[in-house]
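Example 671.
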Amino acid sequence: MALKDSTTGKVIRDYSIEQLKDAANMMRGYDLVELCAAGSGHSGGTLSIMDIVAALYLHVAQHDPKNPNWPDRDRIIWSAGHKAPALYVGLGYAGFCDINDVMTLRKLHSQFQGHPHWLKLPGVEVSSGSLGQGLSISVGMALAARLDGKKHKIFCLMGDGEQQEGQVWEAAMEAGHYKLDNIIAVIDVNRLQIDGWVKDVMQVEPLDAKYASFGWEVLRVDGNDMKQLVEAFDKAKKVVGKPVVILADTIKGKGVSFMENVAGWHGKPPSREELDASLKEMGLTERIPVQKLLDHAKNYQAEQDRELEAKMPKFSRDFWWNAGDDMKVKMEPTRKGFGKSLAENGGDERIVCLGLDISGSITISDFYVGKPERAKRWISMGIAEQSATSAAAGFAREGKLPVLGSYATFMSARNLDQIRVSICYGNFNVLIAGAHGGVSVGPDGATHQALEDLFAMQGLPNMSVVVPCDIEETRKATDYLLLQHVGPKYIRFAREATPIVTNQETPFVFGKANVIRLRKEAANFAEAFEIRLASGYKNESEDLSIIACGPMVPEAMRAARILKQDFGYETRVLNLHTLKPIDAEAVIRAAADTGVVITAEEHQIGALAWRVSGLLTECKQLYGKPLITGAIGVKDRFGDSGSPWEMVKELEVSAEHIAQKAVELMKLKKK
Ligand SMILES: Cc1ncc(C[n+]2csc(CCOP(=O)(O)OP(=O)(O)O)c2C)c(N)n1
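Predicted structure in complex with thiamine diphosphate:
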């Protein structure tokens, strides 16, 4: 029963139903404070699941906070990793960690990552964040327990939208097949997901009949009623010979009237005013030391700021974006260029857009918003990246122009085999949007940061890959890919606002790089540069070249400024927006003309660097010529939670890092 001392077997503390109800209320309060302190994160689903969390962590599961790896503990698997803030208060309340520290949620180097990471925080069983994987992990754990003759239970927490992932049903089948009565799955049926009501996005009910047909025992309860929950868990523990699923009907945003049943609160934290109003409504104003907790978060952040700044390369002055009175730049998210293009071009009757429950934030919804006549060509597929990818191939086979997108990592890795076989092998005309690419989803953490997608995408025969540098170029690239380019195509863009460095007149030719040259200091950063097609550019015998794509192009431009101002170096920046097919001529000319080449990518080093170095080592024109090369990018590591710009610094992909590398290489060139 509940919290146990694993050495003596004594119950440390148990809670009555009334105490559990009170704890759940307090936990909701702490949950909202940590979300407010983080400035991002998931309010709705953490509030709906909190009664389940209180029941599990404080009463139902056998575990010992002082011995989190106790072999006989019950395991709790958070398949719905986005509900991490609720997990963290659960651990804090149970005594696995200090509840004050939970306030560092989503901050750099915090144990409390945007999505749970078991290697950072004792009490977290496994890392998660990509939906639909937890039940399979539970199956593995349950079978392992059976092999080892262990009696503990494996609880697996999932969402109802999450049931749209096909992998959930593969695992459901496995658990049924192996009669895994040590698995107790709990589904937080709050009936909402990101794009709206689950029944409208992609119906998953009747869940009872579905699980029952796979050989599961099904219990259905009011998941915000503590007594019903506790009774259901007690019953579930006694079931023999089959796995159990508890369908817990809940209210998303439970406890805060203005959040309840509102889809918009899925991934939004409360502001300070909204936090105060919420705590008042829950009767917690006097019970939770809000200011002290927020100060704790602030102090932690200040320390991170200090440490990060200390690690940054230093120059004569601060060259960071908009740090001075001149060279000002405007920023907008590149994703908006994608939406703009879909809105403008979506009238073409062949276009169909496939929704994957993240439509607003990746702007694919701009295709139909305010245009009811397009509604029938908007196909909501639910959270089902793999099936949607193959469905897109089906549309293409029938002459349609399918477009689909999600977080770049879920749109390139989870469905890689479907892209490879259904789309690329058949050479189908499908536009795949890898949204929120690179570090730009910052606080969501490593699970959501696509830093490997370009390896896979450009490795596929028939696939074209474009990584535009700003909002304007994203619009142009989407215009082109959507209506002119025929074949499999992947466009990668960012979530965070990034510098706008091109305009309507700037050339964009698919497969052809642009040369960017710093010409002067100006009030407006973009105006200080001249941009032209590489094919029409005459060699100016610059000191070095920086070859970049995506948001690294503005960083390369800023690096060119640092190098000019502090060292007098002239830099040729090459905007290689089309990674595949690569503009080999522009790359080779840059190397031949300058003798120093640095690649800059917001990705694990290699998607750009290895393509470029492959071209250069193969090029006969360069045989025997001195060539000095360097690569800026992520160095074979996962990301971390933190703001997008913090991640640019932490992962060493800023202009300052490029400039530092350039200075190092220029010393070699001079020898
Ligand atoms: C594989 C994958 N695709 C997409 C996402 C983005 N995402 C995070 S939460 C979410 C909606 C989840 O809905 P549901 O399971 O109903 O959870 P709840 O509404 O309770 O928060 C989506 C699509 C993800 N994390 N993983």
